[in-house]
Amino acid sequence: MRKFLLASAAILTLAAASPALAQSKASADAAVGGTVGGTAGGAAGATAGFFLGGPVGAVIGGFTGALIGSEAGVSTTTVDYVERNPVEPVYLDGPVDVGTSLSADVNLYPIQGDPDHGYIYANGRAYVVNMSDRRVVLSPGYAIPRRTVDYVTKNKSTSVTLKGDIVPGYKVSGDVQLAQIPDDRAYSYVYINDRPALVDNHTHVVVWVGE
Question: Which of 7, 43, 74, 188 could potentially form a cystine with 178 if both were Cys, beta carbons 3.0 to 4.6 Å apart?
Fold first, then answer.
């Protein structure tokens, strides 16, 4: 049975010569009885995320981070499939949460072995969707493309000095100027204390911190 980590303080470090990830965690097992569940809309807290190689590519590191899920639960094999079969991410206007109904022009990808659910990668996260009514029922974590991290690390912005432990889950105040990332509407970035930090555009929450 897969264990999915809900980290209250998680740090992802991108190694220079390896895609290996290190993370510090205070975790809870979110997989109970072969299902993944949680409180609908429960997106607060730390988010570590996972990486995609290239525009789609192989997933590195698995799902960790803030789980947004249905109380009824979704099979861990379904989440495994979504993780192992990344698709081209899209951007949807407005927030996406549990219960959000996706319009007919949003392409849902089928999940092998689970005809009841489909999935998308959108607005920086992966989402599991009911095929019957196109409503979002689960988001197991952030989807951070490798190309986004590459851009942030290669294009240093002016560093700001902030107090506290700058880790995923840290909320950046509105007076901190964020730098844009070409062709990525989900994230912006800023260098904090000389370290790159990727920031969710909707929430201003840090989802990745580099070295």
Answer: 188
| Residues 187/201, Cβ–Cβ less than 8 Å | yes
- Label the pairing between strands 125-130 and 114-122: antiparallel
pTM of the model: 0.67
Closest CA to 52 of 132, 143, 113, 115: 143
DSSP per-residue codes, the chain: ----B--SS------SS-----------B-EETTEE---TT---S----EEESSSS--EES--BS--EE-TT-EEHHHHHHHHHS----B--SS---TTPBPPTTSPPEEETTEEEEEEEEETTEEEEEETTT-BEEEEEEEEEEHHHHHHHHHSPPPEE---S---TTPBPPTTSPPEEETTEEEEEEEEETTEEEEEETTT-BEEEE--
Q: What is the 3-state secondary structure (H, E, C) of 64-103?
A: ECCCEECCCCEEHHHHHHHHHCCCCCECCCCCCCCCCECC
Q: Give the residue ranges of the chain where pLDDT is below 50.
A: 1-33, 38-48, 54-62, 64
Residue type, 165: D
Q: 144, 105, 108, 187: which is closest to 10 by C-alpha?
A: 144
pLDDT (0 to 100) of residue 44: 32
